[in-house]
Amino acid sequence: MINIILVSTGILQEYIVDNIKQLLKFNFKIHVITESKFFNVLDQFPTVHKINSDDLMGNFESKSGLDKGFRDGFWHNCSKRLFLLYNCMKTHDIKNVIHLENDVLLYDNLDYVFENKVYLTMDHENRCIPGIIYIPTFDLLTNLITNYNYDKNDMINMAKFYHANRDIVTTFPIIDNSIASSMYNENFSKFNSIFDAAAIGQYLGGVDPRNIEGNTVGFVNETCVIKFNNYTFEWVNSIPHIKIKNRLIRINNLHIHCKNLKKFSIENKLDIIFNNFFNKQTSKTVHETLANYSNNTLIPGGDNGLFYTHICYHTIYNALLELTKQNKDHYNIVETGCSAHGTKSTLLWDKFVNKFGGKVLSVDLNKEAVDSTNIKTSDRTKVTHSNSLDYLPTITDKIDFLYLDSYDVDFLDPLPSAEHHLKEFNCIKHLLREGSIVLIDDTPVSPEWLDNGKCSPIYGKLKSQFDENMAGKGSLVCKELEKMGATKIIHQYQILWKIT
Fold it and tell me: What is the pLDDT of residue 110?
């Protein structure tokens, strides 16, 4: 698996959030190096590994002669991140790394066979724009770090590193073989696709408005050897392509110099389903009680939120996101406790399998709920009127996604519900496989994560007796999942696991 490492030091650029959201659409392990004071912004991404930059500090600060005043130390921090990257890979033993600048969007899983070399993007004989770098192991950067010129910027240092170490450094192609063989296309036959150093992103989206005001779409980078205004571009299934001699060639990344990453992000099928299903409200409602703030903090029942979502919004999204990473054309979803109201989970699963392929099997004791849900869902969903403990043993197909939400819980006495859900899980766990997703409703991580938080009518009493080991429907199932070695993805009001 490829490890993605992002670095944001000194400040946390707000668009890093949009970058991470795009990366999560692929099967990467994501690491972010930044100061611990910014960790709360990243808490919305439970699978992202946060690394404190203060733990990686070397002597770069004392040696650097680069400008520390311009834009909060922009030039200084551009070079500093390379040292943090090196120390991170070395300290944490992280291999097979793609390092991206925070305004560089990826559009591909990058499941290529790389040589044991550093790959970078050269756009001029004397300039590398290190917006995307592949590093198999930290030691291949040793010559860069050891011979760094602390008075020159990262682009010059990386170009010097390339020319002085051709045995261990090569290039990502920024153009195809329609031009003479050169450093700009030397590996095109390996990838049959190209990478953007910066000039394509600048041409398509314009430059940073702090550099040039107004509409700069169509900007032609004055230094880049390849002039991309001589080419046309098309988007195919949300992926950028360059057209050369009537051939469309995939572009694996774009350097979004204008910083408007949202404009160029992939709008995938999951986003379309989800955004049309769950509401975002400007004020708290009966159903939308989770306050979402501009710094990405989440507070159930909070005041003055930027917008409000359902309490299960983020856990359900992450569940379906993890599911789509399996890249299948048929998903088997099993649910206990159907729902055509409240979260309307069964209706959402039905929309998912109609868009991505698959089937939904749900079971409920309430015949009225069963009949209502069957009417509202497609032929891909079957809700059965039965006791779940009688029905679940009849299922034979492997399960991709298991959602447990039967037997209403009393948070002041959760044991009966927890025991029932454990019995359900034991009926079905043999059908889970590596990569299967398990989501359990009504299992708050703390009393503050009740629906509506501290405004919940039972908050005070629950706070005085809360037991994190017996908190809701999934408490006993979670212990079983831990024994199985499953990975906990996110725990809020619901808890999400992945079988590993």
Answer: 93
Q: How far apart are the first and last CA of the chain?
A: 14
CA distance 269 to 368: 32
Structure tokens at 403: 């959602």
Torsion of CA 18, 223, 141, 77, to 10 degrees: -50
Residues 425 and 451 in one domain: yes
Domain boundary (235, 264, 293) is at 264
Among 245, 264, 283, residue at a domain's last position: 264
Judge contact between 297 and 40, C-beta under 8 A. yes
Kindly report the CATH number assigned to the domain that includes residue 437.
3.40.50.150
Q: How far apart are CA 370 and CA 354, in angstroms?
A: 20
Residue 335, strand partner residues: 362, 403
Using pLDDT thresholds of 50, 70 and 90, give the confidence band for residue 268.
Answer: low
What DSSP line would sit under 368-421, residue for residue? HHHHHHHHHS-TTEEEEES-HHHHGGG--S-EEEEEE--S---TTS-HHHHHHH
pLDDT at position 454: 95
**What is the helix, strand, coil percentage profile of the chain, to 5?**
35, 20, 45
- Per the structure, the complete domain to which residue 362 belongs is given by 271-498
CA distances from 290 to 59, 275, 280, 418 (A): 44, 16, 10, 25
**Confidence tier at 241 by pLDDT (50, 70, 90):** very high
Q: Across-strand partners of 188? A: none
Do the strands 399-404 and 432-440 form a parallel or antiparallel pair, or are they unpaired? parallel
Annotate 384-398 with b (16+ C-beta within 10 A) or e (fewer): ebeebeebbeeeeee
